[in-house]
Amino acid sequence: MSRIKARFSTLQAQGRKALIPFITAGDPDPEMTLPLMRALVKGGADIIELGVPFSDPMADGPTIQRASERALRHGVSLRGVLDMVRAFRRENNQTPVVLMGYANPIEAYGVEIFAGAAQTAGVDGVLVVDYPPEECVEFSASLHKHQVDPIFLLAPTSTEQRFGEVAAQGSGYIYYVSLKGVTGAGHLDFDEVARRIPAIRQQVGMPVGVGFGIRDAASAKRIAAVADAVVIGSRIIEEIENSPREEIPARVCAFLREVRRAMDGET
């Protein structure tokens, strides 16, 4: 059983929902990524989404775009991100890690070579924003062969056909984009999310995580009431941006703990 599947199985048995924080690898600098990953785990992360910096992150809002720019200024590459996961695995073999990024760096690396390298490094899943399922059959097959979950996005505009394509190729969990727009946008419609999630879960046959627009403990708690996982990214990047460097891990951990407590009904 994969680490992702095992984590969702454990959480379901406990009656809890997954907390999936996102950070960009190499932000604010490469030396901070491993301490931040440790802080996320300490704060209650069930799965870590690790962004692969890219020069044209079209689905990301300005906050995560700035994080990519900072990482790229330090020369962080896809190969370097895999090295970071490898370092994390030397001390943590339980927390699933999902890489989230764009197709160009993976294609430059080589699809099959990347899939093998991801498995060797200890990556559990890969979400490629600009790889719709109909265009990445080969990529998904390569990941499955190397026991890495291909994770796909669904949106409020996704069709029944897209549900079927994602169910056929994806594994691990589905990332449901809760609103139209880029990461960090507002106007989260909780009622619409609550209406959509049961049908998506039934049709794709795997856990559904919700992201985009979740910014605090209160919104995370409301989403956790209907979804299987809560994904938080831009708000964490803002904490990184607005904290003195030496305080970044502690502040990120404290923020995530507040979210975790709310999701578990402790606040």
Question: What does the secondary structure layout of this molecule look like, with pairings?
Answer:
Blueprint: H1 3-14, E1 18-24, H2 30-43, E2 48-51, H3 62-73, H4 78-89, E3 97-101, H5 103-109, H6 111-121, E4 125-128, H7 137-145, E5 149-154, H8 160-169, E6 174-177, H9 190-204, E7 208-211, H10 217-224, E8 229-232, H11 234-241, H12 248-263
Parallel strand pairs: 1-2, 1-8, 2-3, 3-4, 4-5, 5-6, 6-7, 7-8
Helix pairs in contact: 2-4, 2-12, 4-6, 6-7, 10-12
Poorly predicted runs of 5 or more residues: 181-185
Structural class: alpha/beta
Strands of the widest sheet, in order across it, are 1-2-3-4-5-6-7-8
At CATH level 2, the architecture is Alpha-Beta Barrel
* Strand tally: 8
What Rg, in angstroms, do the CA atoms define? 17 Å
Count of helical regions: 12
> What percent of residues adopt helix (DSSP H or I)?
40-55%
Task: Give the total of domains.
Answer: 1
CATH superfamily: Aldolase class I
Strand content: 5-15%
CATH topology: TIM Barrel
Structural shape: globular
CATH class: Alpha Beta
Order of helices and strands: HEHEHHEHHEHEHEHEHEHH
Distance between the termini: 33 Å
Explain what the structure shows.
It is a single chain. The protein is of the alpha/beta class and 267 residues long. The protein has one domain: TIM Barrel (Alpha-Beta Barrel), CATH 3.20.20. Helices cover 50% and strands 14% of the residues. It has twelve helices and eight strands. It has helices spanning 3-14, 30-43, 62-73, 78-89, 103-109, 111-121, 137-145, 160-169, 190-204, 217-224, 234-241, 248-263, and strands at 18-24, 48-51, 97-101, 125-128, 149-154, 174-177, 208-211, 229-232. The protein has an eight-stranded parallel β-barrel with strand order 1-2-3-4-5-6-7-8, surrounded by nine helices. The relative contact order is 0.17.
